[in-house]
Design brief:
single chain, mainly beta, Neuraminidase, 4-stranded antiparallel sheet, 26 strands, 4% helix, globular
């Protein structure tokens, strides 16, 4: 999540799908290969189905589906909300949230939070409230955990850029991608070389970790071992497009291993095996994150500044942020 939530008030992004499609067509005609666009007969994102489901917030982020409800944050509003499709407006789940950003669920279905305000990774339940899971690495306080996912065996992966530092100074001196074994307390540094690591997601077999870098508008992949260590770092795709607003931020994966992420122009669909952009769909406001939801996990919820949207897909979601 970029620093924009700390200075709301810029111009609202207003894109039309045709404009985004024109950019994609230009990329094809220019002969772009690994970084270009692959034309598909039946897009995974269903055109004409995007709808506004919630509005009136300051800066929304961290969507996660608990099996019934969508959980999301209003970061500067210092509140976490829950939206149920048949219950009207979202209700407050808890506050204050320590400016929580990203959310996911552990194997027991408990909510995990990447907190900007505290610089900690936490767990929250209605019964026990807030519990700190991690707040330091090698004796140095974390910056501001941004997003988080959990592997099937309980290993936690999270990003730690400096966006939420505020008046604090970075103690680590870098933006990190980490793996945390909560059972042993061991935290491994996966990468300290990305300028602004942000959203992240695991492949269907959980052997590859995808991480978006907001500063460079790129998506990266790492091979992940059982102990959380990483190898084989590689750039999957560069999604910069001149003239399109928006950032590489939230990242999700479907059951076929296709990657969905926020990007310049709205939301992008990427085939990581081919390193190819499949689709780019405009969102009425600048998209900040996304999550699978609905009874069969085929709906894609999108947080976008003051709003939350939903779009239908021809895919099925996976990952710890969708139960």
């Amino acid at each position: 999540m970029a620093r924009a939530w700390m200075a709301i008030g810029g111009a609202v992004l207003a894109l039309v799908a045709g404009g985004a499609a024109a950019q994609d067509s230009a990329a094809v005609s220019a002969g772009a290969s690994a970084q270009g666009t692959l034309v598909v007969a039946e897009p995974r994102l269903v055109e004409g189905t995007m709808e506004l489901v919630a509005t009136g917030y300051t800066f929304t982020e961290g969507p996660a589906w608990d099996g019934v409800r969508l959980i999301f944050s209003d970061i500067p509003g210092n509140t976490v909300y829950a939206y149920t499709t048949d219950a009207g407006a979202p209700t407050v789940l808890y506050a204050p949230s320590m400016n929580a950003n990203g959310h996911t669920f552990d194997r027991a279905g408990r909510l995990l939070n990447a907190e900007h305000g505290s610089g900690a990774l936490t767990r929250w339940t209605p019964q026990s409230g807030r519990q700190v899971i991690a707040e330091s690495f090698e004796g140095k306080h974390l910056n501001s955990p941004n997003d988080v996912v959990v592997r099937g065996d309980g290993m936690i992966f999270f990003t730690d850029p400096p966006y939420g530092l505020g008046q604090r100074q970075s103690e680590t001196g870098f933006s990190g991608v980490f793996a945390l074994d909560e059972k042993t307390g061991r935290m491994a540094l996966i990468d300290d070389g990305l300028a602004r690591p942000n959203g992240l997601a695991l492949s269907p077999d959980e052997k590859v970790l995808y991480v978006g870098d907001t500063a460079t508008q790129t998506l990266w992949a790492y091979d992940i071992a059982a102990d959380g260590s990483a190898s084989g770092k590689r750039q999957v795709i560069d999604l910069k497009v001149e003239g399109l607003s928006g950032n590489v931020d939230g990242v999700r994966v479907d059951s076929d291993g296709i990657v969905y992420l926020t990007c310049p122009g709205g939301i992008c669909v990427v085939d990581p095996a081919k390193r190819a952009l499949l689709e780019r769909m405009a969102v009425p406001r600048r998209a900040t994150n996304l999550a699978w939801g609905g009874p069969d996990l085929s709906d894609l919820y999108i947080t976008a500044q003051s709003d939350v949207y939903r779009v239908k897909t021809r895919a099925r979601g996976i990952g710890s942020s969708s139960r």
